[in-house]
Amino acid sequence: MTVRAGGRIPTLTKLREISISTAEIPTPMGGELLVKILSAGVCGTDLHLYETDWGFMPVVLGHDAIGEIVSTKKRVAIDPAISCRQCPVCLAGRPSGCSDYKFLGLTAPGTFASYLTLPAANLHELPDSVDDEAGTVLEPIAVGLHALERISGIVTQDAKVIVIGGGPIGIVVAKLLQLNGFSVQLVEPIKSRRERAELWGVPSLDVTELKSVHSGLERAVAVETSSSKVGAQLAMDWVGTGGVIAAVGAADTPLTFAQAVLKDQTLIGIRGGARRYERAIELVATGSLPVGELVSHRDSIMNLESIIIETNANPLNVFRTVLYH
User: Can you give the pTM of this predicted structure?
Assistant: First the structure.
């Protein structure tokens, strides 16, 4: 299926340049629905793409959003991971391995557009208990659920775990692991982010306070969410011999074969959270993960470029921004 954008469309045309255009509202094809975007969250991926060429330009950014199906007026969460759902890999529950895999805001037009045609299967109706702002933080929950599944397949709840990075996805991942019986510490240099995590009951500390992992029956686990080289190196160093590194952030720091062999380490790549949205919605609707509290700023999508520039220049003051058309 081909995702098509219409209405007002902010496009990252080249590094550090976003242009806003308008286009006709597209007509959905078979199996698709036309969705009007109601609210969209600015993710760390959007901030990185503005500054770094990942090979996807020109592209309409955005993948964390709530929309309204135009034909029914139903409010829906949007799963940004699109695959054929028919090939053996999709049927085996690994849609990210599909040869037709696309991701909104990267390899397909994203949710900062006014309208998108989307596969009906990627739209999940929202209960009234999940508002438009909280709904823009569902994708970090889905990613966290993916990480939880992968980690639980390797170690038990006796494993010592750190989560590196105290942004929305780091706090959500840490809380999910905690809710599922793991003893977790969040490592974050910014005091205000540590304090926010503490309000959620997640023990948090600066890297200078982090103690070396102690030996035990279970391997140590580091979940890296910061996408920074410093964070990735910390993960590799802290887990020690036999440790497990779950990479949620895509830091450009390789785990070499030599290190993996000599330290007997395991690297898990967490690519998105496809097909986990119903569970994510349930966690928000029941109050288990009050992600609406993570929204710190609100603005117009017309100001997208200035918001990205200001956030990249001074991330201390911004936690999660929600944009509206």
Answer: 0.94
